[in-house]
Amino acid sequence: MGRLLYDLAGADERLRFSPYCWRVKMALAHKRLAFETVPWRFTDRDAIAFSGQSKVPVFMDGEHTVTDSWAIATYLEDTYPDRPSLFGGPGGQAVTRFMNSWGDRIVMGGIAALIVADVVPNLAERDRDYFIASREKMFGKPLDEVIAGRDDGVKAFRASLDPMRAVLRHQPFMGGAHPLYADYIPFGVFQWARCVSAFELLAPDDPLWTWRERMLDQHDGLARKAITREAITTG
Ligand SMILES: N[C@@H](CCC(=O)N[C@@H](CS)C(=O)NCC(=O)O)C(=O)O
Q1: What are the tens digits of pLDDT across the range 85-120?
Q2: Looking at the domain assignment, is residue 172 inside a domain?
Q3: What is the pTM of this model?
Q4: Of all protein residues, whose CA lies closest to atom 10 belonging to ligand 1?
Q5: 117 and 182 both lie in a single domain
Q6: What's the total number of domains in the chain?
Q7: Which domain, by its residues, includes 16?
Q8: Going by fewer Cβ within 10 Å, which terminus of the chain is more open, N or C?
Q9: E strands, the chain, where?
Q10: Which protein residue has the closest C-alpha to ligand 1 atom 14?
C-alpha cells in the first residue's frame, strides 16, 4: 500500500487549496516521499469517516491513518528519520509548535478575514451552502461583511507579520538557510490564498513577498505549478 492524502478540492478537482493540506504536501516533498492524492469536498463526510473525524488532511501511509497537519508532520519525522528533517531536531520541533499555533491564529486568522468570501465561487456546487453557513457562524456575520474594508484591513494583517519579517531580514527561510516545517506552516496559508483569491496580501517590496517567491520555487516548484483559480478562469 502506498501513501495517500485526502486533499480538499474545488469545483474543478485540480484546484487543491486547503492550507493544512499544503503544509502536508510540502512536508512530504521535503521528505522526498512519493504520494497520491484523493480529491475531497467538504460534503464528502462519509469518505473520511474511517479516520474518526471530519477534516482534511487525512493521510494514509500503508496501514497507518493520521489526521491533523501537525500530527502528520511529526508522524513523518518519526517514521522517516533518515530523510531530510522537517524540524532540525527535537528542540526545533518543540519551537515549531509555537510557529504552528502562531500560524493558525495570526496567519490563518488574518488571511481568512481578508479572503474568506473569495473561496465560495471556487467550491463545488454541493459544498457552497455548507461552507457559507459554517464560516458565517464562525465569523458571526455574512462573508461579504467579513471582507468589507479589506483594503484597510490588510495593513493590520501585514503589520501582524512583523515577527516573521524581522527573522527573514537575517536569513532566507524561517528554518535558516533552507526551508523547514516552520516555513511550510505559514506558506500553506499563503498558498491557500493564491489558489482561490486575487486579493494581494503582501506588497512587492516586503521581504515576505521574496520569501513567498522562494517558497513557490521549492521542491521543483511544487506550489508554483499548482492550478489556481486564475489558471482555471483564464483557461
Ligand atoms: N487542525 C487541523 C485543521 C484542518 C482543517 O480545518 N481542515 C479544513 C480544510 S482546510 C476542513 O477539512 N474543514 C472541514 C469543515 O470545515 O467541515 C489541521 O491542522 O490539519
Answers
A1: 999 999 999 999 999 999 999 999 999 999 999 999
A2: yes
A3: 0.98
A4: 18
A5: yes
A6: 2
A7: 3-79
A8: C
A9: 3-8, 36-40, 58-61, 64-67
A10: 55
